[in-house]
Specification:
Order of helices and strands: EHEHE
Helix content: 25-40%
Largest sheet: 3 strands, parallel
Shape: globular
Number of helices: 2
Oligomer: single chain
Strand content: 15-25%
Number of strands: 3
Strand order of the largest sheet: 1-3-2
């Protein structure tokens, strides 16, 4: 293994600190997202490769039946 990844997920209390720190890494394009649409747009329009989530505001949802 090379120790490199193409994509990443970061979760902290607000997500702000993680996204700031991640964007200091060359090649990293982190986006703090709050819903599925903002995640999709961050990937499509900004080529984000790191998803940052705010653990304090995440909601559990039940998908499917």
């Amino acid at each position: 293994m090379s120790g490199k990844a193409q994509f990443g997920v970061l979760i902290c209390t607000t997500g702000i600190g993680m996204s700031i720190a991640a964007n200091k890494v060359p090649g990293a394009r982190a986006a703090l997202v709050s819903d599925e649409q903002s995640a999709r747009l961050a990937r499509q329009h900004n080529n984000a490769n790191i998803l940052c989530l705010a653990g304090k505001t995440l909601r559990r949802t039940k998908r499917g039946t």
